[in-house]
Amino acid sequence: MRRCFFSLCLLFIDVFIFAFFLFISVQSRKILGHLLKAFFPPFKFSTFYFLKIFWLPLLFLLIFAYEGLYSQNFHSQEEIKRILKSVLIWLILVFFLVGIAKKTEEISRTVVILQGFYLSLFLPLVRPTLKNFIYKKHIGVKRVFIVGINEKTLEAGKLFLKDTHYGYIIKGLFDEHHLGSINIEGKDFKVRSLEVLKRALKRGMADAVVLSLDVYGGDERLFILLSEIQKRVPEVFLVPKVKILPILNFESLTFYPTRVIFFKSQSSMNSKLNLFLKNFIDILSTLVFLPFAFLIGLVIALLIKIDTPGPIFYTQERIGKDGKKFKLYKFRTMYVDAEKRLKDLFKENETYLKDWNKRRKIPFDPRITRIGKFLRRFSLDELPQFINILKGEMSLIGPRPVTEEELEKYYKEFKEIYYKVKPGLTGIWQVMGRNEIEYPVRVYLDVYYVLNWSIWLDIWILIKTIPAVISGKGAY
């Protein structure tokens, strides 16, 4: 019953969004017909038009349901991927059905294209936000048991408590040995025995289970426990104890008649087609944004000149793909004697040095100019890097370009992974906290990005960049 109400809430949201943008699409088509009569024939619109196309939202909702967008809990990255995939399938099916039924006179293809464009642009931003709001009201959240207490399962517990957009709420912790009380993110939980777990499962008290593969030391009893859990719970997350970098593109393979299971992983970056697509998107996006960046840049250049003496641009040598060095372009945000001021700061207060070693940034940095604070808050100082993208030195999305000193000090054995891609104008750690994230975590996230790269991951980062820049959180 709880999940039904949650699904109905999401259904209502999608119907409202679809109807709203269908109205906007129709109005946009009317405007295009008035402005560009030579390209757009007269649009035959009547009050009955929306009745004629009643099947368009029904088809859309059916595709959403097929993709699990009403029944499953997804991280925002996966949800955005499924939303965009659903919109694309909807567009293809609508054009196919309109052509087969010969309804091109009744249904405006321009309206359909505009509807697909608006949905692709706004649904990935609006729907996850509204869904997160519903989760915070404890509607549709799934009750999860954590079985087997170790570093990895506790990390999963912290994730569920900190990030409500996952849609899981911890309802119990269970282990064979680590009984007693445990604190996760400031909240106390009682760890109960596995016998209590079995009774709770029979009573249907969980919707999902996070299971450590080390719970019994990996013997036959684990297989029996897993079978018992799978009979009672629709979702089971298996957590290996081994510390490995998370790889998203794993494929499980079983070779019969043995019981051995292999996990195969292939790097998307090894595909020439994927690299071509990434480069194509970089150039296309840059050409679209460049006129706006140029106009904004002229205003910024004038403000920098008025604010403080010194050059408009700041250049620094950074390391790019395959370890090649290049000059990074930025608008100047610091006083011209910033390096001297930095050394003086370290002498005055060791706290500044600690912050610098953690993040390579200093909160409330006195070296930054008045206009520089504004530019950094909204990442406008990065606009000249569109030049680096056009020169082929950078990508729209990727690990942020670093200096040779940073590579040696922080990346160490992960340097070769960093070398595999072009550095990006924006990246994964920028949308997850920016400068509030400590440097070792940044390295981890950059490595994660390279090993798990996909077009969908880039789209997710690009969408997340918009609210991250607007909020200005973690920018200094």
Number of separate domains: 3
Overall helicity:
40-55%
- The percent range for strand residues is 5-15%
Q: Which shape, going by the Cα principal axes?
A: globular
Number of strand elements: 12
Summarize the structure.
This protein is α/β, with parallel strands linked by helices and 476 residues long. The chain is built from 17 helices and twelve strands.
Task: Describe this structure as you would to a colleague.
The protein is an alpha/beta fold. The protein folds into three domains: 2-136, no CATH class; 142-243, Rossmann fold (3-Layer(aba) Sandwich), CATH 3.40.50.720; 272-333 and 368-471, no CATH class. It is 53% helix and 13% strand. The longest helix is centred in the middle third of the chain and has 36 residues, at 272-307. The chain is globular. The model has no long low-confidence stretch (mean pLDDT 81).
